[in-house]
Every structure is written in C-alpha cells, then in structure tokens.
Design goal:
Distance between the termini: 38 Å
Radius of gyration: 17 Å
Shape: globular
Strand content: 25-35%
Strand order of the largest sheet: 1-2-3-7-6-5-4
Helix content: 25-40%
CATH topology of the largest domain: BirA Bifunctional Protein, domain 2
Number of strands: 12
Mean pLDDT: 91
Low-confidence stretches: none
Structural class: alpha+beta
Number of helices: 6
Length: about 250
C-alpha cells in the first residue's frame, strides 16, 4: 500500500504530484497516464504503482519491476511548451539523483540519455512519450531489491539503493523528494538544466560505443548541446547523436 500521509508531509510542490493516482498493480504507469489524460486530469498528476507488469524502457525494452520494491511512476504534463522532450529526459534523471541525495546523501550519476547510475551499475531509467503538447514521463528506480530479485538478464548490470545502503528506503519519501526536485528544475531554462546535468555525467571525455548506421562505432563523449543531443568525437571530428544507447 501507499502511505499518502507520509508522502504528502514531505511534498513541497505547487502542482507536481498534488494529484496522485495509486494502483496496486497495473500494466504500465505510462499507459495509465495516457488513459487518465483522456479523462481530463490535472497538470502534474503523478501515477504510481506497487507493481508494473508490462513496464517499458527505451527502444521497446522491458522494464523489470518488483512488487513493493521498485519505485515506478509517471508524471503527466499537459500542454508542455516549456522544455523540449530530449531535455525533459535529462532533467528527470537529474531530479532523481538530486532527490536521492537529499534523502540518502549518496552520489549517483547520469549516463546519456536517460540512465541513473550508482557504482557504475544501472539504478534506474526514464522514458518520455509525447502526443501533441502532452507529455508523459515514466520513471523506474530500483529501491529495495536484493541481488537475487533481479532478472538474470540484468542482475549483473543492475543495483538498488538497498544493495548499496544495506537497508530499506521508504518509497513514499523518496518519491516526494524526487518530485520536489523535478518542480524546481522545471522552472529553469534549458541552458541551466544542461549545465547542471553535465556536472553529474560520469562519462565526459571517456570512450563510448554506440550504434551508428548498423555498426558499433567508438567515440569520445564530449558534451551535450542545448537540444540534449550528445556531442561525440570520432577521428577528431565532432558529430551529434540524438538517440540510442551508449556503452562504456
């Protein structure tokens, strides 16, 4: 169950998360968000589920989540014209690691374009979907999982807050801290968001690999531009990458 009082006591926002829809189990919080948008929900509504049975990551990948152990939620932004979709993904990742630091004070980092990293392993991710000017931001974070809880496909590349801290984290408090940070960042312009994101990126000036026209290409990751595209150096030439998965 979700402790609304615990959550609301910590929430400091004006509109993000002021309306919250909780599901014991759902196929996807993003799907629920789009269904609710059609029913005219408030801007900034947050949809959270204790269990997500068909969670999706980027590029159609499955997002594994465990009942009452993962934090899986979506934010519905209506008529968003303030921040570009690509920058929203960066901003949301930034809100997650700042929220974690406020609550637990551990250093997490960001991997372009949407991964949250702890101890060089994946702690969480972000999925942005748009229809017109409406945006749904899906977030998945490994919170109270143990090593053996993870699916064999991902267990060696994944980590949870509990594995790092050796104790459980109250999901309601963590969600409130993340939403507080999200609203603060949402008030900033793209330039400020990107500047702050770069401070937490853990692969600046490091060699990466990415898929380029069907081939795996090596490059040095240099920065991101004002549209949130990655800037990489290949044979002393800088090129932009706008999507895809990079590997270190």
């Amino acid at each position: 169950m979700f402790d609304y009082e615990l959550f609301q006591n910590q929430l400091k926002t004006n509109f993000i998360g002021q309306n919250i829809k909780y599901f014991e189990s759902t196929d996807s919080t993003n799907k629920q968000a789009w269904n609710l948008i059609n029913l005219k929900i408030d801007n900034g509504t947050v949809i959270i589920a204790s269990e997500q049975t068909e969670g999706r990551g980027r590029r159609g990948n499955k997002w594994f989540s465990l009942n009452n152990k993962s934090l899986t939620f979506s934010i519905a932004l209506l008529k968003n014209t303030q921040i570009k979709r690509s920058v929203l993904a960066l901003m949301t990742g930034l809100a997650v690691i700042k929220g974690i630091k406020k609550m637990i004070d551990i250093p997490c980092y960001l991997k372009w374009p949407n991964d949250i990293i702890l101890n060089s392993k994946k702690l969480g991710g972000v999925l942005i979907e748009t229809k017109g000017h409406n945006v749904v931001i899906g977030v998945g974070i490994n919170v109270n999982e143990d090593y053996n809880d993870f699916n064999p496909e991902i267990k060696n590349q994944s980590i949870s807050l509990k594995m790092n801290e050796k104790k459980s984290t109250e999901i309601e408090l963590l969600l409130a801290h993340i939403l507080n940070q999200f609203e603060l960042l949402y008030k900033k312009n793209n330039d400020k968001i990107i500047k702050e994101w770069l401070e937490y990126c853990f692969h600046i000036n490091k060699e990466i690999q990415f898929h380029n026209h069907g081939k795996i290409t090596k490059a040095i990751f240099k920065s991101i531009n004002n549209d949130g595209c990655g800037i990489v150096n290949i044979d002393n030439k800088e090129i932009l990458i706008s999507s895809g998965v990079i590997e270190l």
